[in-house]
Amino acid sequence: MIDKSQCSGVWVFAEYRNGVIQDVTFELLAKGRELADKRGAKLAAVLFGQGLKDKAADLFANGADIVYYADAPALATFNGDAYTAQLTALVQQYKPEILLGGSTIAGRSFFPRVAVRVDTGLASDCTGLDVDAAGILQAVRPAYAGNVLATIVCPEHRPQMASVRAKAFKKGAPVAGRTGELIEVPAATGEVKTQILETVRDTGNVVNLADADIIVSGGRGIGGPDQFGFIQDLAAELKGAVGASRAAVDAGWISSVHQVGQTGKTVKPKLYIACGISGAIQHLAGMGASDFIIAINKDAAAPIFEIADIGIVGDLFAVVPALTQALKNR
Amino acid sequence: MGVQYGFSEQQTEIRNTMREFAKERVIPARAELDEKEEFPHALLQELGKMDMMGLYIPSELSGFGGGSFDFCIAIEELSRICIGVSVSYAANALGSYPILLFGTDAQLKKYMPPIAKGEKYCAFGLTEANAGSDAGGIQTTAVLKGDKYILNGTKQWITNGGEADTYTIIAMTDKNKGARGASAFIVEKGFKGFSFGKKEKKLGIRCSATRELVFQDCEVPKENILAREGMGFIVAMKTLDTSRPGIAAQGVGLAQGALDEAVTYARTRVQFDKPIIANQAIQHMLANMATKTEAARALTYAAARTIDAEEKDVSKISAMCKLFATDVAMEVTTDAVQILGGYGYMREYPVEKMMRDAKILQIYEGTNQIQRNVIGAALIKEYASMK
Amino acid sequence: MHIVVCIKQVPSSIAVKTDPATQALTCTGSDYLINPFDENALEAALVLKDSDKAKVTVLTIGAAQAADVLREALGRGADAAQFISDAAFDGSDAWATGKILAAAIQKLGDVNLVICGKQTFDGDTAQVGPSLAEFLGWPCVAFVRKIALEAGALKVERMYEEGFEKIALPLPAVLTVGKEINTPRMASLKGRMAAKKAQLAPITAAALGLAPETVGAQGARTRLAKMAPVPRKSGGIKVDGSDAAVAAKTVVDKLREMKLV
């Protein structure tokens, strides 16, 4: 257990994937800056990879005072064993007070392991963060199927860890030329038992709903696989992604990669159009935080209308094509 | 709320198993299976893994060892959701009963375990173009030549035809003797001279396979005769006596399924500012539907229990439950469509399919007119013996 | 080959109530079932049992009624069940849960592979699988969509946002899976009948050699500070869709005004 009194600083794990530092990192740097200023502490970013030293500039420009950079072949892409060992070693040496990362596949895979290894608590998949006067991180996350917002604290152990959903916070404006201290740390990846044989980029099958600005989703009211064409047409017109409710996925009308909701993806697009989705709580848990919601349903009493900015009571087979047409005409 | 029928722990488990299966697997699939007229192969395979295909087959033949009542409970639950799937399921039993009732040890051991495990399907072939209700009009012949029977003729409207691997077939070994000249045979798919006609397009039970079985000098090993020559009519009648409560259970389940839909709809459909169930006219319709369904259930269970008690002559009670429960199913599904109104007529709701499916129950495994004949004949016999 | 599957009983629906006096929120679950992703984990193990003759043990932590999920799993084909139940476990966070599960797995002794659902329906942390791997000191791959056993080692496919990776790892190991991996089977009739009779004696903290203060609310590294209702939107407008073209125009005008299109 790390001595609480020796800890200071806010750290953000910088996720480098597919040749870029992920947006969630910059969102967290913006929030982390706020938290660090409240604590009168420094904001650090942690970057792992191979030959990425020059990427530190982006992290400084987005608010980092320090960048810890580890360079090793085992860190070139995400490897749970290697990343866990490397981050643990850094945390034990430099003792941050707060450690944040994106609630991505990688983040959710290795943050829990780091937490156990350094013996501390972790709040997962958070949507809000604050720090109180005593330096206790207030990590807010949806709980009980998105029914409530729970505030999680880790009073006794350090660092206080949280993984945070993409788009929970806004990116700041990068300050070109802003610099900081680059600390290159030795590789400490330990024994790596997991061997990555092949990485297959497969965006054909993968629908990156989490990153989509516009999502058009279909539910039980769609009635069958063929009718998903209406949804696809509207999504294509809006250059958005196609989503689906669990009912539509379970019925076999569309593949589960499209599923939005508690057992699917959590999304926060600028515009979410729900077609023939009644709005079961599990679906709302996955899309309720969308900036603007349009619901189309023939049942005026459907719960989806309670969270919709625009609710259209009507036949989706008439309204959805009409919308597509109206957008074409615009 | 429920009526107590004295289910054993095992029967409760059978009901729950099939109820969950029907809800989880059949509800999402039924409309599409019906629309595409697609045989529910995946569903039957899964039922096999769940021990349900061998429910009525003795455990020493790899079955579950359940009785008629157990089987009726399973059929009822499946029928509540889809008759097309339930007939594909239950027709295996219809095809198997001749073997189970009359098969030799060797026949039982060879044919029943794969059916019990769901690895193979089974079908029963009695009906022909000119031999429906009048089984005496069968024209398919079987002639013994050396160590083989040579079958010639065509069976019509055979449920699971083409999908099944094992067929029990009634054919004439002696045309001069009428009904006493019929014999029963086990015929395997792949026997030389055995082929299938086209798949029929039907009003209802559209996912089930209904085909012609065509025998052209079909060679059947001599040892594949069931019972002995001349017993074919008895085999068929005993088989139907045993299977009829299963059809009744289809009627009970279907009526219950339609009632479920009608009540659910009537509670939520608002017209003139109130749910339509608040209208006495609707309540009375639902009351009649519920009462008839429960009466059909009680009669069906009584018949199944009579068979399980190994009562010697079950023709009358079997015919009664089949007649009553399937007439109830037709009435209740029709009323359910009426209660759902325009929505009920649309394919978006399940009741139109239920109504289409119901009609066959009054027709197959002996029309309901034939059931009345059976009951009438039994009454004559019963009262004649009272003297 | 001995596979352990960790399963959790979760409510399929949750009602949130506010105490009018204290304004405190309470969440009451109903219609309990196996956590959906845990069903996928169990199915993945049963598939390995079918192909590689593995023994499958299911394990749950919970109060008396949680034994129901073990019976369901036994009905589907699990060979043995461990019912871990002790008031000392109440209030465990993901950290403490990982610790308890790891202790139970170590006590079994001969376990080669642990499969967990990627996250639970109620807690939703996705932490327990990776946490318990750390307590065991085993490698872990989370979000797996395909598992193969080859020459005593694992080859898995791990999903990531833009595709998947093929990863090799030795046994023993911990994997977490999502619904992409399979369709869970249903319990067989014979399985259900046998599962009803299974003896599921609670395994306590003492039996696992865990001091009560190291688990449960006392041992947890995180605490729930407060719960608040999710702020719901207001001011939404309803549009009559009976004339689709008019409705569509209203919506498109609004979207243009909002600069969303």
Write the layout of secondary structure elements.
The complex is a heterotrimer of chains A (330), B (387) and C (261).
Chain A: E1 10-14, E2 16-17, E3 20-21, H1 23-39, E4 43-49, H2 56-61, E5 66-71, H3 80-94, E6 98-102, H4 105-118, E7 122-126, E8 128-131, E9 137-143, E10 148-153, E11 160-164, E12 181-185, E13 195-201, E14 214-218, H5 228-238, E15 241-244, H6 246-250, E16 271-275, H7 281-287, E17 292-297, H8 304-307, E18 310-313, H9 316-329
Parallel strand pairs in A: 1-4, 1-6, 4-5, 5-12, 6-11, 7-11, 14-15, 14-16, 16-17, 17-18
Antiparallel strand pairs in A: 2-3, 8-9, 9-10
Helix pairs in contact in A: 3-4, 5-9
Chain B: H1 9-36, H2 41-49, H3 68-79, H4 83-102, H5 105-116, E1 122-125, E2 141-145, E3 148-159, E4 166-172, E5 182-188, E6 194-199, E7 210-221, E8 225-226, H6 232-268, E9 270-271, E10 274-275, H7 280-308, H8 315-345, H9 351-361, H10 368-384
Parallel strand pairs in B: 1-4
Antiparallel strand pairs in B: 2-3, 3-7, 4-5, 5-8, 6-7, 9-10
Chain C: E1 2-6, E2 9-18, E3 25-34, H1 36-52, E4 55-61, H2 67-76, E5 80-84, H3 94-108, E6 113-117, H4 128-136, E7 140-150, E8 153-160, E9 163-170, E10 173-177, H5 189-196, E11 202-203, H6 216-219, E12 223-229, E13 237-240, H7 244-257
Helix pairs in contact in C: 2-5, 3-4
Keywords:
heterotrimer, A: 330 residues, alpha/beta, Rossmann fold, 2 domains, 7-stranded parallel β-sheet, 5-stranded parallel β-sheet, 9 helices, 18 strands, 28% helix, 27% strand, elongated, B: 387 residues, alpha+beta, Butyryl-Coa Dehydrogenase, subunit A, domain 1, Butyryl-CoA Dehydrogenase, subunit A, domain 2, Butyryl-CoA Dehydrogenase, subunit A, domain 3, 3 domains, 4-stranded mixed β-sheet, 4-stranded antiparallel β-sheet, 10 helices, 15% strand, globular
Question: Would you mind describing this structure in some detail?
Answer:
- The complex is a heterotrimer of chains A (330), B (387) and C (261).
- Chain A contains 9 helices and 18 strands.
- Chain A folds into 2 domains: 4-185, Rossmann fold (3-Layer(aba) Sandwich), CATH 3.40.50.620; 209-329, TPP-binding domain (Rossmann fold), CATH 3.40.50.1220.
- In chain A, helix 8 (304-307) links the parallel strand 17 (292-297) and strand 18.
- The longest helix of chain A is centred in the N-terminal third of the chain and has 17 residues, at 23-39.
- Chain A is 28% helix and 27% strand.
- Chain B contains 10 helices and 10 strands.
- A 4-stranded mixed beta sheet of chain B has the order 1-4-5-8.
- The mean pLDDT of chain B is 95.
- Chain C is of the alpha/beta class and 261 residues long.
- Chain C has one domain (2-219): HUPs (Rossmann fold, 3-Layer(aba) Sandwich).
- The longest helix of chain C has 17 residues, at 36-52.
- Chain C is globular and about 65 Å long.
- Chains A and C meet through helix 3, helix 4, strand 7, strand 9 and strand 10 of A and strand 2, helix 3, helix 4, strand 7 and strand 8 of C.
